[in-house]
Amino acid sequence: MTTDATIQPRRVVKASQKRKLIIEAIVVIAIALILVFVVPMFLSGFRQNLLGRFLALAIVALGIDLIWGFTGLLSLGHGIFFALGGYAFAMFLQLNSLPEGQIPNFFSLYGVSDLPWFWEPFYSFPFTLVATFMIPAIVAGLLGYMVFRNRIRGVYFSILTQAALVVFFNFFNGQQQLINGTNGLSTTTTIFMGQQVGGADMRSFFYILTVVFLVLMYALCRWLTSGRFGRLLVAIRDDENRVRFSGYDPTAFKVLVFAVSGAIAGIAGALYTVQSGIISPQAMDIAFSIEMVIWVAVGGRGTLIGAILGAVLVNMARSLLGERFPDVWMFFQGALFLIVVTMLPNGIIGWARRQFGPQVSKALGIAPTHLPYLDDPPESESEPLADTPEFAEK
Amino acid sequence: MLEGLIGGLFNGVSIGAVLLIVALGLAIVFGLMGVINLAHGELMMFGAYTTFVVQNAAREIGGIAPDIFIFVALPMAFLVSAALGLLLERSVIRYLYGRPLETLLATWGVSLILRQFVRSVNWPIAIGLGIFAVLFGVGRWLLNHYTDWDRISQWANPIFVGLSAAIALVAGLWVQNAGSNQFTRAWFSTRNVDVATPNWLRGGVTVGTSLQFPYARLFIIALTILCVIAVYWFLNGTAWGLRIRSVTQNRGMSACLGIPTDRVDALTFALGSGLAGIAGVAVTLLGSVGPNLGVNYIVDAFMVVVVGGVGKLMGSIVAALIIGIAVYLVGSGTLALLFPPTEVFQPLIDFFNFFATTSMAKVMVFALIILFLQVRPAGLFPPKGRSVEL
To answer: Three-state DSSP class for B205?
Structure first.
């Protein structure tokens, strides 16, 4: 960070900050209104549905950015929370579109006549609404606590989340009698608020709902990452030991932020499920969870808007390129990982901010934001005196 | 009872041996170098495909070739995977040392590319790649010799890569359009291929009434033991092994003492990759070979290294055996048989039967691993030191 900016009176700084916030709020709301009212006019029902799904995925990307971009925890297991949210809502839909006293059809295939006990609470709509984000949050919190308590961090955390993902995948995939195994739960023909979930009206309702939730989640993440809490997250990312020695307990903050991120993924999972019409263990595929990370990396980690942009852009590229040339798409995706990591570590937004940030700030009459960039000369991450292998010195 | 015990132990050990041979290369790359290589599984897959190619060649030759092809496949697979690993290290990973999370993402990208490469590789792609390699290599060599490369590399490198790639792409597309169907057919396609087990590895030794030790399993166990001994000897008995260990312990000091750390890195990575290739040969004896072969093993292999404790070969060996035996005991439902079928134990028996499939056994063993890490966060054999880091 540069320190050559002249120190200004507190009043001036406050005013500048307030102005920035207002500009940001106006821009966000304007984009949301365009998405809700203008964009549907130009898109067919199918394309609008597709965009709705991408926006749901953008919500997961926000959650990933919160823990990776800001806190430095790379989770490769967000598919778990995504799928849990999706399953919770799909179970509710399945139960509530049946005649009284019946159980979902697929159970008869496996000779199950009684509803498994854990399906019972999902008859209730309020319970489902809470479960959609609370179950992922609790699972994330528990997993996070078990891992962070022991100061397991960095790549070990990533590997363990990936292992957890495999555990959940195997569990959901293998339990035909409980949750319909590989086939997953379909929501297309279920009824929600008196209408079919797969119908045109419901689709546009869910599209609007997704935009609303995206704005809400953006506001939540924005609120979390500004102020003291946000600065603490960044501090944990940059030097956890120093945070610990300053008297904070990083474990509690990491567990909390991981749980919040899981909850966000759960909500996104529910919104994605109703728009794509099915939730299956495929949502817990190893590749899918790593892709979530690359959306954030492409857009620019540590910037919330980058996460959203990255998720939408990469998924659009997938649907444009992947549908017609699946082979080329795989090569392209692989290259994307390589290019982003080696040449564009700050993502699109980071690059654009660095190139055009000062001019834009000037035009709007606000103080330019100073952001640390990932390809700035690195400060050594490990303790200088520790006798660990010091690759950082290379 | 005794036979059951020995049989169970053998099955567990043989699962453990497969895990160990897959994890051995990873223990070197991840354990010693600290590099997370998600493309490790794909290096293994290349080893498996090399075996397939060698087998086909052996069939053409005939005679005793189909019986002994596996002994040719082992060094071939080692060389192919090691060369690929070397290329990967020189072109990508060496720029990312000290940034493990970035390495993880980059190697995942590489693994995607390698998987798709195996699916769609055909003559035009191979020719295009060859042209690119020749143009780029020769061009670099010429410029290096006749110009001030350090001064112009800034702008010359991207231009050179782009130019070579463009020529190669055009040539490849031209061949693709001009060539016959036979010529542009994918070599392996997306379908799984099978490596026929040599005759002498079929069947098994029968001991007593019900015990059977399949030869293929015995072969894998023997191969694993050999590899472990070889790696141990290399690391502890040779000059390069000494250099590898010293760079692992203190990179800066090693460099000061004149050890070429750059070359040590490349060598270590190539060694780990080569071992992945050998693991690839081993797994062809267990089932068919497909582009997604690697993904199925990679998470298990990482678990072995994490449980064993990073940087310790011994840890990986013990961890692989324990995990292997645990997976077998849980997966086969043996644990449920331990309890007398009475009313009191019924819930326990039901509980263990619930986990008595291969995939559910994994669920339980992974859960146990997470619990185990609560007690020993740094694994079975944690590295000693005064470090604040784990």
So the answer is: strand
Give backbone dihedrals phi and psi of B206, rounded to 5 degrees, phi first.
-105, 125
Tokens of A368: 């330019």
A339: left (phi over 0), alpha (psi -120 to 50) or beta: alpha
**Cα–Cα dist A295/A288, whole Å:** 11
User: Rounded distance, CA A179 to CA A183, Å?
Assistant: 9
Q: Do A74 and B386 touch (CB under 8 A)?
A: no
Question: What is the interface pTM, i.e. ipTM, of the complex?
Answer: 0.84
Rounded CA gap, A358 and B300, in Å? Answer: 48
The average pLDDT across B300-314 equals 83
Strand partners of residue B207: B211
Contacts of A376 (CB under 8 A, 6+ apart): none
Mean local confidence (pLDDT), B309-323: 84
Cα–Cα distance between B251 and B242 in angstroms, integer?
13
A74 contacts in chain B (CB < 8 Å): 101, 104
Instruction: Kindly report the pTM of this predicted structure.
Output: 0.85
The pLDDT tens digits of the residues spanning B361-376 come to: 888 888 888 888 878 8
Q: A331, B248: Cβ pair inside 8 Å? A: no
Other C-beta atoms closer than 10 Å to the C-beta of A198 total 16
CB distance B108 to A340 below 8 Å:
no
Q: Which residues of A touch B303 (CB under 8 A)?
A: 159, 163
Residue type at A234?
V
Structure-token pair, residue A155: 């790549």
